[in-house]
Amino acid sequence: MQKRLIVSLLILAALLTTAWPAVAAPPAQTDEVYVVQPGDTLFTIALRFGVTVADIAAVNNLSNPNLIFVGQRLVIPGARPLAEPAIVTDRNERSGPEATPPTPQVYVVQPGDTLFAIATRFGLTVTDLALVNGIRDPNYIYVGQRLILPSPGPAAEYPAPFAAIELSPNPVLQGQTLAVRVTLSEPATLSGDFEGRPLFFTGDDTGGWALVGIHALQDVGIYSLALRARLEDGTESVTAVNVVVGAGPYGTENIQLAPGRESLLDPAVIQAEQARMVEMWSQVSPRPLWEGLFGLPVAGSRVTSPFGTRRSYNGGPVSSFHGGTDFGAGIGTPIYAPAAGRVVLAEELAVRGNAVLIDHGLGVFSGYWHQSKLVVHVGQTVRRGDLIGYVGDTGLVTGAHLHWEMRVGGIAVDPIQWTQRVVE
Ligand SMILES: [Zn+2]
Fold it and tell me: Would residue 157 count as lying in a domain?
């Protein structure tokens, strides 16, 4: 019953573009659930339902009313009951586009459905469905779930010279690398930005592609990615696409640091080293140096700590997430370059120990920390499979392992994604 109420409320919320209208004689009041939408604040939600911020915060145990997220379900105390929506099982049963005003309709998820399949069946996009239904993770829907079917908009049409824009993967999860591919109808220079960070395109007269690192702690939701094309006559065309960010499958762990090594967590030491790294991986070599899938840097080793895990130290609060993939391996196990690139750092660091950083071009870097000894030098070009070092226990570690890290536009992304699908 609760799901039906959520859907009912969402429909009403979608129909109301302004604050809750004055109703002369409100019907009996009852608690309902509202799913937080992009752009919502607790204040606007309270206004819409004619309740107070304090009421909502109290009922939902919100310690900080400024921290709500898209997809969060909030109990609205004393909200008014709503009419039942119409339910359809197929597009043919929907009212035609001439029907005014359009009534949002509801689809009940069947076994075997995916959000993509449902979107395709009804002529919608995954973005449309996720946005209207406040779905946090577009990969997760369940049988019996009721989805609002928004009125299909016109097929995406971009201003010239944008002929087509393709996002992969779509939706993209927290901590993944997003590829943006643009097809052009005439030669132009492409640029763009996402969350204030620039995109760097490579390509030719027919189009180009760029990569976006999605931060592992990026709020789940729908974001606008801006794209610009500068024509040869100097005129510029601007457009935007929606990027749906779903939740990554990340847990939380506590790290116990041995006595003596805790001092390395001095913020000044970490910050100085971090600033140095940021400066290095903020550089962008204009051409990709890699090709195809990345390999694994150590053969036959198991992952002892995956990318993205939220971390606390010695029982403290969660202060960070794991920015790479750890492989458990004995000291001296050889490390091989997973892809071609150029060594831009090879030296001993306080936190990262003996560290090697490889520039793969287009803002893509890979790092190999805690090595027992360094065998490459700055400026050296490496090919896939070249020996670049040996596993060790140098720097801030609890035991011998390889920490393999990848950065895209300075953002730490899941390296394993690069070994499983071609990112370009
Ligand atoms: Zn690690």
Answer: no
Cα pseudo-dihedral 150, 154, 158, 164, rounded to 10: 80
How many Å is the Cα radius of gyration of the chain?
A: 25
Distance CA 265, CA 397 (A): 11
Measured in Å, residue 323 CA sits from the centre of ligand 1 at 7
Give yes or no: residues 37 and 104 share one domain: no
Going from the Cα of 404 to the center of ligand 1, the distance in angstroms, rounded, reads 7
- Ligand 1 geometric centre to CA of 121 (Å): 43
- Give yes or no for residue 411 having a pLDDT over 70: yes
State the distance from the centre of ligand 1 to the C-alpha of 355, rounded, in angstroms.
Answer: 12
Instruction: Tell me the CA–centroid distance for residue 368 and ligand 1, in Å.
Output: 9
pLDDT at position 88 is 46
Domain boundary among 117, 149, 181: 149
Burial of 311 (0-12, 13-18, 19+ CB in 10 A): middle
Which domain range does residue 213 map to?
Answer: 162-246
Measured in residues, the chain has a length of 424
Q: Dmax over Cα atoms in the chain, in whole Å? A: 79
The candidate with the shortest Cα–Cα distance to 325, out of 386, 366, 264, 271, is 366
Q: What is the pLDDT of residues 143-178, one digit of tens each?
A: 888 887 776 555 568 899 999 999 999 889 999 999
What pTM does this model have? 0.67
Gap from CA of 382 to ligand 1 centroid (Å): 23
CA–centroid distance, 305 to ligand 1, in Å, is: 7
- Give the β-pairing of 310-313 and 207-213: unpaired
Residues 6+ apart with CB under 8 A from 81: 27, 28, 29, 30, 32
Residue 125 has a pLDDT of 79
CA distance linking residue 120 with residue 23, whole number of Å: 39
